[in-house]
From TrEMBL:
Species, as recorded: Demequina capsici
Name used for this protein in its record: PH domain-containing protein
Signal peptide: none
Keywords: Membrane, Transmembrane, Transmembrane helix
Residue span, YdbS-like PH domain: 75-148
Transmembrane segments: 23-42, 48-67
Top-rank taxon, per record: Bacteria
């Protein structure tokens, strides 16, 4: 047992469709910069090709980081709380007790809807413990919202 792998946690990893959705939103502006770097490189040659190389290396780095981040994003429902983990290098585990949840919302922009995924946002009594889970399939996001809301109400009813 560690901070990042608590006992009794059965992790549900986010959908891999989050990878192309994030890559599209992050890399599209970078791909628009590529012709801006290519035109001077073709016209003037020489050291200007370094700018093209920098853009290509940045694209590769961003792609690698996104794949790694998505692979580390997961949630686990336990008896009394919800765990949300993310990050590989800078790990973060958020524990949200069901009794502290005020409301749960599901949101999906146009790109997320096109990929069939959504984001589940948990709001608690303390703004420091809010958590979100990106890349949840839309059907599962609705079920998760309903389960978390029911558990939160049941926990509050016991107070």
């Amino acid at each position: 047992m560690t901070w990042f792998e608590p006992d009794g946690a059965s992790w549900n990893y986010v959908d891999r469709r989050l990878i192309p959705a994030r890559l599209l939103s992050l890399l599209l502006p970078a791909l628009l910069l590529l012709p801006v770097a290519l035109v001077p490189a073709v016209l003037f040659g020489g050291a200007v090709w370094i700018a093209v190389a920098i853009v290509l290396v940045a694209l590769a780095w961003i792609s690698w980081v996104v794949v790694r981040q998505v692979g580390a994003h997961a949630w686990a429902e336990r008896e009394d709380d919800l765990l949300v983990k993310r990050g590989r290098m800078f790990r973060r585990v958020t524990v949200v007790p069901y009794g502290r949840m005020q409301f749960v919302e599901v949101e999906a922009g146009p790109l997320a809807r096109a990929f069939g995924i959504a984001r589940v946002q948990l709001h608690t009594a303390s703004p420091g413990t809010d958590a979100s889970i990106s890349g949840v399939p839309t059907d599962e996001a609705a079920r998760l919202r309903d389960r978390l809301t029911a558990r939160g109400e049941a926990t509050l009813a016991g107070l």
